[in-house]
């Protein structure tokens, strides 16, 4: 498959990383962004100086601030816009993307509706063929061509195959999955637990603690996802445990870095300002905490983090409460959506 026109909507870290992969595979990539100066720099110097200044992009990536130029002739449109602006941006191109393949790479939840991004795509462009891309894919490692794998999810098998072919290379491997909701939810939920892991790291907690947190995070996110209708087995794949591991262990994760800064005594505002990029987990934490209460899903790590971040309770006090909580069983969470096990 050569010579396709592919649109990437979003000029941030991940949109740029995806654009670079696709152009390296011989396709014409039209990347849309708001910042005219950045678009000019990408076209002239092939560097995204704002988000990935240390990497030279494939010259087949061409950037513009004209979303209709990017999307109208595209065979496939990747959308890599933070969840808070996702609907507005998709709405602005809906006149030209009907019937096309639209792929979200965004790992977040919409406030108010609790919609995931594939649901927004379906609502805004009902005739589109829809999929999501999610997995352990730190943008800086992807653009550095570190060996990486990801998941494309859709109930449209031909779409999965097309996206696999577009992205597949000797450093980027793409698996398919039909549980679109589970794959997408895994990517959104793990951001919350990356904040928890960053907090633990900043407090100098040991390897036992980190292992416990990752494992219990997986239990908790799976329990929530099953209640929401996802397949629990999805959480044992790249978009579940895979993405959880990478974001809970790497300082390249912005959510991890927000947790680290909070643990060092910074306010949420300071932590976010220092980052200068999107950390979806804070917004997702608020939304998931409310949804879990509504659905009566037991999520002690979400509740504990919420107390620390939004009610300013001390980390040590919340940790002590979690550790001294009711005694629980270990592994049956994965198949029982109503299980009340916990940390
Ligand atoms: N950076 C990473 O390693 C990965 C990020 N993702 C996901 O991709 C999504 C985007 O993240 P990044 O590209 O990393 O974020 P980023 O913070 O690097 O860039 C966000 C981009 O969105 C643009 N933007 C924000 N509001 C906008 C609006 N209203 N209209 C148009 N553009 C707008 C910004 O100008 C910027 O270009 C997030 O949901 C993230 O979870 C997924 C996989 C990996
Ligand atoms: O989703 C990611 C890697 O898979 C990136 O995580 P952050 O948004 O925390 O940087």
UniProtKB/TrEMBL annotation:
Enzyme class: oxidoreductase
SUPFAM superfamilies: 6-phosphogluconate dehydrogenase C-terminal domain-like, NAD(P)-binding Rossmann-fold domains
The EC number(s) this enzyme carries: 1.1.1.94
Domain Glycerol-3-phosphate dehydrogenase NAD-dependent N-terminal as annotated: residue spans: 6-159
Annotated keywords: Cytoplasm, Lipid biosynthesis, Lipid metabolism, NAD, NADP, Nucleotide-binding, Oxidoreductase, Phospholipid biosynthesis, Phospholipid metabolism
Role description: Catalyzes the reduction of the glycolytic intermediate dihydroxyacetone phosphate (DHAP) to sn-glycerol 3-phosphate (G3P), the key precursor for phospholipid synthesis.
Protein name: Glycerol-3-phosphate dehydrogenase [NAD(P)+]
Organism field: Aestuariirhabdus litorea
Lineage: Bacteria, Pseudomonadati, Pseudomonadota, Gammaproteobacteria, Oceanospirillales
Record gene name: gpsA
